[in-house]
Fold this sequence. Notes:
CATH topology of the largest domain: Lipocalin
Amino acid sequence: MSGVIPNPKKTLEIDFSLNQIKNSIEYITFKNSKYKLFQKNDVINQYSFQGMEFLSLGVYIDINLTTVNENKTKIDIEVRRTMGAFDKPSEINKANDHIQNITKYISECVVLSNEELHQLKESTSTSNSDKRKGASWKSAMIFIVSLIIFLLIFKMIFKKDPDESQNEEDTKSEVSNKNENPLMLDKEYYFYDENDELNCAECDPCWKIKFIDKSSGEIWSKPCSGSSELKSCQSKFTYEYNEQSKTVTIKSIDNSNLTEFCKRKFFGEWVWLKGKYPQERFYSKNNPGADFS
């Protein structure tokens, strides 16, 4: 291991006012989804983005804005590791790439009007929604075809007389009654969000949830594509479960980095029932089109 290398930094001045940059800087995440707004402080004009890296925990990119005059702003950019410090030249090269990208996205966003910024956000959200819908439809078709093939093979191999079939049905009924509770602890459930109701600007667009015990659990977001299981916006939550109505009620989410607007998307009742998919799921009463299974 080499010695510790200082965090890469860059300072530049651009001919735009501080407010123009503040109004556009949060749209960097819509230019490239691997950059997520991690935290911000509008009072001291400081913004931190989380940058994703392959086979790495990634980096934090700190951006500080300072007024030079009413038409010029100084921008200080610093890249730091999410854990530890830089100690390899290859890591510094990646950090410099992040600085170059952030500088590029700032310059592209600051020249956009409010209407163009809104269009950028909408076009990105629509693209992510189309990808999730396509993936959901493909998964549903694979499930249906696999189920049909399995049932045909099962029918060909196992032929039972009427009495045996009746006994098997009785056994299945008993097992079903014993396992009618659909909520399983320590199982990771995946959210499906048909209308993009669960999108939060500070988090990845796809969400997972796990119930740790009978009153608390864990919720987090992750990239929708690829095999990465990197968790972002990881939070603890409390809930209640009604076995009679098969309803999960999420009561609170503990994460100071999440906005209240984001948290409220998950609050309320999620009811186990059949919807448009073959299998039952937990559907949200507050956000039509959102469910998890």
